[in-house]
# Entry
Amino acid sequence: MTATTHLPTATILGYPRLGRRRELKRAIESFWKGHTDEAALQETAGELRAATRARLVELGLPAEGGAVPESFSFYDQVLDATLALGAIPQRFADIAGSDLITYFALARGDRDHQPLEMTKWFDTNYHYSVPEIDETTPLAANPAQLVAQLAEAAEQGIESRPVIVGPVTYLLLAKASDGAGEGFRPIDRLDEVVGVYAELLAALNEAGAGWVQLDEPALVSDSLPVPRSETIALVERAYSILGGAAARPSILLTAPYGDAADALARLGSLPVEAVHADLVRGSLPEADLASGALTSAFAETQLVAGVVDGRNIWKTDLRAAFGALERLQRAGIDVVACTSNSLQHVPHDVRDETRLDVELASWLAFADQKIEQVVILARGLADGGAAIEAELAAVDAILAARAQASGVRVDGVRGRVDAVTVADRERDHEGERRAAQQGLGIPELATTTIGSFPQTVEIRKARAAFGRGEIGQEEYDGFLRDEIARVIRLQEEIGLDVLVHGEAERNDMVQYFAELLDGFAVTEHGWVQSYGTRATRPSILWGDVSRPAPMTVSWSAYAQSLTDRPVKGMLTGPVTILAWSFVRDDQPLADTASQVALALRDEIDDLVDAGIRIVQVDEPALRELLPLDADRQAAYLDWSVGAFRLATSGAAADVQIHTHLCYSEFGEIIDAVDGLDADVTSIEAARSRMDVVEPLGEHGYSRGIGPGVYDIHSPRVPSVAEQQELIRIAAARIPGEQLWVNPDCGLKTRGYEETVASLTNLVHAARAVRAGA
# Structure
């Protein structure tokens, strides 16, 4: 072990990466379009990294001692680890150019290469590029980017801490390449990968790194290829080797996103200098703390206590957080105040939000405010609780005022939830529904899209002009009607069977509804990275939720008036509205979900009254919110499925209810998906080449299913043959009368040229398979 160094008493695990005004997004997309070169992109990225480091120090993190994390990424931290390990799949071996060219090809694909599969990062709305590993995948340390960023920080006079996804988590998140041998698991190569990590650590040590952060969130998850008990043992094996290396920086081993209490004492005994525990979604091992076992385990190791919530935007109860830190300090443990996880999941600064209600804003803490809270807690650790009593009392007063604020509790909303019965969550039997829906005239292998069409520059300009008051409501509505009419005509020309209105009026699939529901607020600059350059502005669900008026009916009814083909009404489901918002933390999620579900139930009633006979209620986040702890999963699935059914079960048998799921490990939640009782479910499947159909077939899934045949997250145009092959794979396990043909997801982020080409190929592929070709 190297000579122990000590982290300062305040640190964080990571910071937002796209820039306060999404500067990195614009620079990368300009590079992708060929408008700028790689040198210009690297220059912008370097400026953003420098500004981030300077801001962290300005907010109070020490410039020395490794308190500042080096958590920048051009796209995704797992993809960064793939590049650092040299673990480039053989199918990309022919790509010429720089590391960055290869990196973006892995992320997005190109004309000749399908990109890596993408899925959700634990239980967040962040997505990562899934590594492909087999027995022969090359491994070679590539520390160039890590070392370069370390040197940049040193030039600023800041001792930064490189951040890398840890070896066990990396391999447990990987998938076996298509050419892997039977029974091969990526984790089988752990010892080789640990050897490469040791080389990376040696290179960082030589470059002057005092600390390195290795993230192992696999430690808190029961949803990985091995049991958690085995994960803990694998981490012990890996870090016994890394910790014993002769030349390395000090190691901060992190366990964010959940509860590592059962492993904490074992982690503290490893030959590393610091261990992080998420104490917001996790807990302290009370028995070990009481017996002194935790103190003994951390006798030479710092405990980095994640007491400030890095996932939500409410002010942390500083008094409670400081109480937890004091307990650890009194037990003789060298404790560091920290966030529960990287702050990449929250916006930059609430002070940017000049349009938010002042009282609501006082309840909030974005990334910068969370750092300020960490620094206050660290001062209390150093100088005693009396030194921060004024700050603790100020937060106490804010929390008390929030609890009493108007709109936080609305008796009428709560009374309606209390009156919900079991019957309110039940529809007619699926057989009766299937017979009643024959009148819709939908063919076998019906073609449709998931909902949104490209949000063009013209749409964004019109929305912005309306927002600035430069055009009036009548002119803006006329523009939207023209856009809807154009999209309907286009779909008819392409030959789709079930149409959508294209959602031109929607800025975001959650924010649109948040702006129309009571109990929500929206931000102006509250961007959060979802994947790559894609960012969303999560809405703030702060009070009891109700629907003052219909939200989508006029647009859907207008679209249906333009065509004889069925048009789907499009809604975002209650679980996804919660998952993609910052949700109040003062009541159970199940209660909030029921409130949202009742508002959507009213909307479905009005859509049906307006003549809409197909309604899609999207739940792409159903798998996302599944707790990492297996003991809490059944309760979650019960209330999440119940919320969807509460929203949809008022629909008569002749109304076809659709839903859509994203990035789901389908087999894990197939019983819950079945429990949704939707008439048709679409799900992403193109990148995984229809992996979902096997669990569907084994389960005996009996209702409509649309496994995606067109990957909309890549600019590639899949050919007729490519999509036809995927349809045939699905048709081999799913009867034709159940099978739908659709893209993986909405088309909002794509351009029209590629969209029209891809959908035209999709329709031709479906017709060919329908005809027996």
Remarks:
- The mean pLDDT is 95.
